[in-house]
Amino acid sequence: MIEPNLDSLRTFLHLLASAVWVGGQIVLGGLVSRVRKTNPEALKTIANGFARVAWPALGVTVITGMWGILDIDVSALDSSYHVTLAMKIVVVMLAGFAAAAHARTKSKIVRVLGGATALVASFGALYLGVLLSSAS
């Protein structure tokens, strides 16, 4: 068996938290229209339940991501890595801000645009993470 180490633990936590954050958004996206039609008062309960899991997961993702950056010699990597890393940081921030706007607004348009932007940005962050992992 390959011996576990701190790097594998960090990667595991990063991927698990990312799966919770992104996967939860996908599941909610599939549920919301049905729940809105059948039991609209349940939406707030479902959203609050998701938030209790999703926001800590995003926090773990950010912390383990920063830990990963600190654990490699970024200066030894070429400029394309730096650009991709900067893009990932921007889309992670966009996902977080958009999700926060979605969660805190009373405006229907901000809720829709915030949720859609958060999901698309989360997909982007996930893909950029794959690119980064294949380069380092």
Protein described:
With 136 residues, this protein is an all-alpha fold. 85% of the residues lie in helices and 0% in strands. The protein has helices at residues 6-38, 42-70, 79-104, 108-135. The radius of gyration is 17 Å and the shape is elongated. The model has no long low-confidence stretch (mean pLDDT 95).
Roughly what fraction of the amino acids lie in strands? Answer: under 5%
Question: How many helices in DSSP terms?
Answer: 4
* Biggest sheet statistics: none
Overall body shape: elongated
Order of helices and strands: HHHH
Radius of gyration: 17 Å
List the main descriptive attributes of the protein structure presented here.
136 residues; mainly alpha; 4 helices; elongated
Task: Describe the secondary-structure layout.
Elements: H1 6-38, H2 42-70, H3 79-104, H4 108-135
Short overview:
The protein has helices spanning 6-38, 42-70, 79-104, 108-135. The protein is mainly alpha-helical and 136 residues long.
